[in-house]
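Cross-check.
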Amino acid sequence: MDQATLVGPDLNAIQDALNALDKAALGAAVSLLAIFPEYGDWRLVIASPLLDQKHLLKAHTRVAQLFAGRFVYTLPPLMILPMKDPFIRELRRLFGKATNVRGMRLGGQTIGDRYLEAGYVFRIQ
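Predicted model, tokenized:
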């Protein structure tokens, strides 16, 4: 697990993926890279009202189709959470009114119902 925190994903690649979501009008209200202890590696966490569905498989399929063949690099595993997820709600409550959260680092804390080992924030609205 310690290696995941030392070697992180390419932030420019993640930004390209988020830009593709924005262009497709699926922009994420919350987007961050996170390491959760149950996974032990970086995850791209996104939450969007436009992807907020009862069956998240449809949301994953939609994003996978959007990303298919678009990038020459490998993105970290995608984790789409509903806007009502306690983790997302607490992030938005804590940081949603901040003027600029991009680049903010989080970690070593429980947010909502999840312990976050490390995190790099792109957007919280």
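Residues 2-124 form one domain. The helical segments are 2-6, 11-23, 56-67, 86-95. Passed to J.P. for a second look.
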